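Practice problem: predict the structure.
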Amino acid sequence: MSWNRSIKMFVALFSLAAVLTACGGGAKEAKPAEPTEDSSQVTAATEKPADQTAASSDADASSDSSTNETDSSVKEGQIGLDSTMDELVEKYADNVGYIRIPLDDHPVRRVSEKDSKNVNIANYSDAVVDVNTGRPIHTDSQPLIDDAFPFFTTVQAPNESYITWEEATNLERAMVKTLFIAREGLLITEEAMNNKDYSNASFVNTLRFFQQSSEFESMAPVAQTTDDITLTTLYDKARTSWAKLAEIDPAQDEAAFAEVYKTARTDANNAMGFLNVLLSTNKEERIKEIYGE
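Answer:
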């Protein structure tokens, strides 16, 4: 897919509001799924005690797959482990051709090209991580995947066929996990708005998750395909609106908060809809159908 088509796809994104219902997802081939009001998979991101951020609590929960900050192979004060692209391909490329670095093996790398002074810092794991530590900003577990991957595939459009988890790109996997948590967070936010209860721990920690995910230090996996580039654009747009949502105190300005919430919901829907398309085996056909040539 050419870059021009990526731009066209981005321009057409707002049509996805008709494809997905409020945070419930759902491609247009299927009846939208009814959003669940609670989920055990987002507890760590939204229901930790108020004195813990989503990032720190989730990092603790996933310590078995986190990067050791004091590893001597990373220079003190330096972000990422020095690597060359040739080294990464040789050691970490899978049979599909994607570079996949485990979370416990310094997923954030400083990549240099041969005969070039340019260095690119990139995340080669399949999770959104803190660029300084390499740790996921949320719980990264198999139960989360078991709930989230079906939600963004067969639940949304059961008549489509889908690739396996093993075939998905790092970014697609990360978005499955992060957007699933964000969706639940938006449902919690909507409930808080309806009840005018902004002191609830779940709501407080939801906003902390949105704030954490929107920070510069929270790095999504690097794009390894053209479609990844478009998905990155959508995710960046969504987390920008999440940041704005987290900046507003709804108790002080409910109208402003409600307006930004609408934008955040739409941006999340756009990203979730495109993710469903990318995970289908006939994605090129569906891209043409939904976004045009």
